[in-house]
Amino acid sequence: KYYISSTCKIESHYLGNKSGNYIFRVNFKNNDCTDNTLILKSKSRLESDADITVTLPAGSIPDENCFPTSEEQTFTYHTLQNLIVKDNRTDDESGGKYSNPVRLIFNHKLDENSKNTIVKSITTEPVYKITNENVEISGAALIIYALPVTFNSKYTMKIASGAVKDIYGQSNTDDISLDITVPEAKSYANYKD
């Protein structure tokens, strides 16, 4: 039994599967008190993108020699969403090493260790060779750049399902397909006095 204040903010993190139990750490944060943690065990994996309700019965206590709660308390939190592309920027301007970049912004921070798998899974039409030097992961952003494209041209790009992984171990469930238009080259003029 564990007491949790009704003003707590709830955060859930999947820790892994041990002996057939799916283990979750649930943090309860309150501006007025210290952090509290409750470990939940589930016999089955919790559904993604779903509301989970935790009910503490009346009489729950935080520790020995503490007063029990006087009434039942119910808390609801939301599980992780599946990994999806929130935004794609296929017409960003070039700058520095990022010539003709394609930026995909995901809903979770990406696993930087999935870079090699991503590189191997990207295909384009027409065919461009893609190497580790053309791909960068920065937080929730996947940036593909410096392909040998022609200005004011079009091409398609596909990233195979399962290639992009987030820090929670989830991967994209569908192929990511993009139709890309390469913008005109920027021109600059500089006149000296």
> In whole angstroms, how far apart are the ends?
79 Å
What does the oligomeric state look like here?
Answer: single chain
Q: Count of DSSP E strands?
A: 12
Global geometry: elongated
Helical content, roughly?
under 10%
Mean pLDDT: 80
Task: Please report the number of helical segments.
Answer: 1
- Class from secondary-structure proportions: mainly beta
Strand order of the largest sheet: 6-7-10-9
Binned strand content = 35-45%
Descriptive labels:
single chain, 193 residues, mainly beta, four-stranded antiparallel sheet, three-stranded antiparallel sheet, 1 helix, disordered N terminus
Describe the model.
- A hairpin with a 2-residue loop joins strand 9 and strand 10 (141-144).
- Helix content is 4%, strand content 37%.
- It is elongated and about 80 Å long.
- The strands form 4 sheets. Strands 6-7-10-9 form a 4-stranded antiparallel sheet, covered by helices on one side.
- The termini are far apart.
- It has 193 residues and is mostly beta strands.
- The longest helix is centred in the middle third of the chain and has 7 residues, at 115-121.
